[in-house]
């Protein structure tokens, strides 16, 4: 039988049972649309979060000094200095020439034991020039920027507010950051008493806008605004603002920001709050991370347990967040898949009913010469039509649903609406709808085809 | 032997009804040649329909062999048998067995479509046949919009679509009143007489059997009589 005729007969069968066909189609639509909506929304979030996290640091590795907390046998949290003192005690036996140093450490640890809450009594881990040199010896490291964080009273005109100030290396920060100036220029080497401010600080903080080349007062000292940064875009742009600082200046200037609080001692020079590293373009990221950790441990004389610094790599965060979102999407898609499964059961059900209902007609068709193959194809086409119509409407509806969700998100988050359609989601949904339809139609179609003509004819 | 269309050789048909075996057909050997008008007669349950189904290759024998145009149907592929059946045999059923969703014309077109006859030829032929059975004005009617006699005439037109050599009719008049029944027999008679078809008809009605040229009588699955009808009557007379 020609395929045109088979299609015609199958189509007539679908048409002859409009209500039942549509009910079946609705089942498929819901399944397909929800799979589509979930996969697309998941992909959208993944993209947005990745973009945002990349915006926070991209592939820059950040190292901060931290004294690790350890849980001792009693379950109490103790500062790790205790452990290091034990290490030191061991060192004493091995290397007697370091006696002096070790004794000092022991003294410290004693005070520490007696009053471990007092932070001044702890030798705080610091990042210094030594660490920078250590890092520079790693071939994969391209740029290093150091950060010194501070706070100050900002006065502009007659208004005053307190702000966070970030000191950066004017030579390397511009190369390593993904922040861009909207007006003015980035910092460069030799800059002194100049700042770059965020768009938010420039626009929203004071009655009067802070303009390029105007002077601002930080703790009474005046600085020139040489650049204003671009505003962060995207879904989670606001979030980025939370982590970003509003004032950037050469880090050396941060040390000399005199505090309004006279009791605070001046900051120690060449001690950094964090070090940022940008690797060479072609560097093996994971290997480099390991190398950084190994070199730093050696130069700082710490082990894995006593490690007093922390390496933060946004790439890892992006990866793990990506995995999390992926997992969540997969889970939701799985649930949506169940509704697709229910939809396909509907197809199978409809097909079985059709076959029962058409048994006599199958017998007639066989008596007048139809082959098993013809009967099989008629029922398969019937199932395929239902799933195809369901699939197409489902994809359209799913796409529309995604846009509504994204529109709501964009209104909520005050970001511009973007059309999004996941190719993967669409292809998956289409394939699934076809496969599901065929599988659901296969068994009933096979049953129909293999009916013996006499039995089929006798059926009432 | 060339004249033989269908041959039964020691054909048995046994139905298993739980523990009991029902021999619906017992050791039947018979030949049906070209241009015969055979009536299969016998009481209810004697195996007439069983025999028709085997003649029409809708079923296979439990024992014995059946040859359709010299080919053992047990050795044919399903698709080949279907094609052979479609081209060689036309069925007329007691309950007409038209496809309810299709118009009279579409019902007659269906066997032609199954045989992949091109659309123009098929349509021309279907219309000719419907005109032949006197339904040129009812082509677009669905079966539900036709009387029993008209439906049976559509069914005869359909059985003729692929110009088969054999027409099989199982109680074609069973659901019709005697006047309409006689009309239908008249059509079958002319097909035998004028178109030289082989017509095999099952009937209870001995009067209707009188139009046939050969009588095959069954009793409890056995063929008890097979002889030419010496007093064949012409329905037109
Ligand atoms: N599918 C079947 N399963 C079991 N037994 C069957 C089946 N078909 C027919 N029979 C039995 O075979 C025997 C012959 O049946 P068949 O239908 O051939 O009779 P028939 O001569 O056509 O009768 P009628 O004149 O009433 O149509 C009967 O005893 C019947 O019960
Ligand atoms: Mg019968």
The secondary structure category of chain B is alpha/beta
Share in β-strands of chain A: 15-25%
Largest sheet strand order of chain B: 6-7-8-3-9-10
Give the distance, in angstroms, between the N- and C-terminal Cα atoms of chain A.
Answer: 26 Å
Let me know the average pLDDT of chain B. Answer: 92
Instruction: Return the structural class of chain A.
Output: alpha+beta
Please tell me the CATH architecture of chain B by its name: 3-Layer(aba) Sandwich
Tell the overall outline of chain B: globular
Shape of chain A: elongated
By DSSP (H or I, 4+ residues per run), the number of helices of chain A equals 15
Q: Helix and strand string of chain A, N-terminal first? A: HHEEEHHEHEEHEEHEEHEHEEHEHHHHH
**How many domains comprise the coordinates of chain A?**
3
Given as residue ranges, the uncertain stretches of chain A (5+ residues, pLDDT < 50) are 78-122
Tell me the radius of gyration of chain B: 18 Å
Give the H and E element order of chain B: EEEHEEHEHHHEHEHEE
Briefly, what is this?
The complex is a heterodimer of chains A (460) and B (237). With 460 residues, chain A is α+β, with helices and mostly antiparallel strands.
Blueprint (SSEs and pairs):
The complex is a heterodimer of chains A (about 450) and B (about 240).
Chain A lengths: L2 H14 L1 H40 L3 E5 L3 E3 L5 E3 L1 H14 L4 H16 L12 E2 H8 L4 E16 L2 E10 L4 H4 L4 E4 L9 E4 L1 H6 L10 E4 L2 E9 L7 H7 L3 E4 H5 L15 E2 L1 E6 L5 H15 L9 E4 L1 H44 L1 H9 L4 H42 L9 H27 L3 H6 L2
Parallel strand pairs in A: 6-11, 8-10
Antiparallel strand pairs in A: 1-13, 1-14, 2-3, 4-12, 5-6, 5-9, 5-13, 7-10, 8-11, 9-10
Helix pairs in contact in A: 1-13, 2-8, 2-11, 2-13, 2-14, 3-4, 5-10, 11-12, 11-13, 11-14, 13-14
Chain B lengths: L3 E14 L2 E14 L3 E5 L6 H8 L7 E6 L2 E2 L5 H11 E4 L11 H11 L4 H14 L15 H12 L6 E5 L7 H16 L4 E5 L3 H4 L4 E6 L2 E7 L9
Parallel strand pairs in B: 3-8, 3-9, 6-7, 7-8
Antiparallel strand pairs in B: 1-2, 1-4, 4-5, 9-10
Helix pairs in contact in B: 3-4, 3-5, 4-5, 5-6
The structure holds adenosine-5'-triphosphate (ATP) and magnesium ion.
The site of adenosine-5'-triphosphate (ATP) has 12 residues of chain B, from strand 1, strand 2 and helix 1.
């Amino acid at each position: 039988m020609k395929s045109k005729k088979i299609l015609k007969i199958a189509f007539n069968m679908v048409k002859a049972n409009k209500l039942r066909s549509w009910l079946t189609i609705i089942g498929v639509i819901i399944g397909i649309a929800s799979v589509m909506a979930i996969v697309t929304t998941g992909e959208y979030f993944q993209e947005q979060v990745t973009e945002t996290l990349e915006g926070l640091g991209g592939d820059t590795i950040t190292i901060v000094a931290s004294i690790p907390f350890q849980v001792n046998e009693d379950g109490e949290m103790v500062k790790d200095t205790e452990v290091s003192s034990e290490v030191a005690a061991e060192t004493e036996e091995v290397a007697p020439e370091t006696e002096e140093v070790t004794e000092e450490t022991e003294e410290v640890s004693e005070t520490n034991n007696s009053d471990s809450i007092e932070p001044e009594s702890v030798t705080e881990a610091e990042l210094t020039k030594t660490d920078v040199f250590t890092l520079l010896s790693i071939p994969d490291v391209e740029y290093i920027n150091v950060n010194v964080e501070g706070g100050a009273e900002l006065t502009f005109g007659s208004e005053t507010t307190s702000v966070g100030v970030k000191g950066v290396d004017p030579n390397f920060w511009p190369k390593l950051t993904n922040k861009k100036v909207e007006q003015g220029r980035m910092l460069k080497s030799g800059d002194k008493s100049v700042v770059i401010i965020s768009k938010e600080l420039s626009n929203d903080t004071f009655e009067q806008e802070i303009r390029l080349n105007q002077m601002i007062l930080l703790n009474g000292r005046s600085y020139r605004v040489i650049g204003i940064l671009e505003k962060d875009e995207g879904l989670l742009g606001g979030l980025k603002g939370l982590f970003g600082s509003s004032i950037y200046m050469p880090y050396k200037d941060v040390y000399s920001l005199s505090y309004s609080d006279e009791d605070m001692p001046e900051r120690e020079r060449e001690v950094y709050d964090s070090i940022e590293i940008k690797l060479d373009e072609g560097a093996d990221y994971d290997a480099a991370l390991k190398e950084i950790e190994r070199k730093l441990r050696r130069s700082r004389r710490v082990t894995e347990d006593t490690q007093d610094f922390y390496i933060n790599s946004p790439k890892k965060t992006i990866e793990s967040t990506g995995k999390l979102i992926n997992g969540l999407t997969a889970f939701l898609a799985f649930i949506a898949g169940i509704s697709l499964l229910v939809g396909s059961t509907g197809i199978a059900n409809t097909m079985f009913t059709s076959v029962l209902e058409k048994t006599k007609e199958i017998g007639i068709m066989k008596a007048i010469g139809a082959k098993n193959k013809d009967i099989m194809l008629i029922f398969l086409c019937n199932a395929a039509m239902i799933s195809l119509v369901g699939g197409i409407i489902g994809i359209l509806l799913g796409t529309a649903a995604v846009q509504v969700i994204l529109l709501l998100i964009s209104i909520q988050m005050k970001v511009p609406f973007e059309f999004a359609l996941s190719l993967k989601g669409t292809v998956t949904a289409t394939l699934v709808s076809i496969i599901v339809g065929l599988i659901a139609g296969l068994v009933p179609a096979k049953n129909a085809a293999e009916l013996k003509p006499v039995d089929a004819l006798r059926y009432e | 032997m060339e004249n033989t269309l269908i041959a039964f050789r020691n054909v048995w048909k046994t139905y298993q009804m739980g523990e009991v075996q029902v021999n619906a057909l017992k050791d039947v050997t018979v030949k049906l040649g070209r241009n015969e008008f055979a009536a299969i007669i016998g009481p209810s349950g004697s195996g007439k329909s069983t025999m028709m189904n085997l003649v029409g290759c809708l079923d296979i024998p439990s024992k014995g062999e059946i040859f359709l145009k010299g080919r053992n149907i047990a050795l044919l592929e399903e698709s080949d048998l279907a094609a052979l059946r479609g081209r060689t045999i036309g069925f007329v059923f007691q309950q007409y067995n038209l496809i309810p969703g299709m118009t009279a014309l579409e019902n007659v077109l269906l066997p032609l479509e199954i045989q992949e006859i091109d659309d123009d030829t098929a349509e021309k032929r279907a219309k000719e046949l419907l005109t032949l059975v006197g339904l040129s004005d009812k082509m677009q009617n669905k079966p539900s919009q036709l009387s029993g006699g008209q439906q049976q005439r559509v069914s005869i037109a359909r059985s003729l679509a692929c110009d088969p050599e054999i027409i099989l009719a199982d109680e074609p008049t069973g659901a019709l009143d005697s006047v309409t029944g006689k009309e239908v027999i008249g059509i079958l008679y002319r097909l035998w007489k004028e178109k030289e078809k082989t017509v095999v008809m099952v009937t209870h009605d001995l009067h209707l059997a009188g139009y046939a040229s050969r009588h095959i009588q069954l009793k409890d699955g056995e063929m008890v009589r097979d002889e030419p009808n010496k007093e064949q009557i012409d329905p037109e007379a």
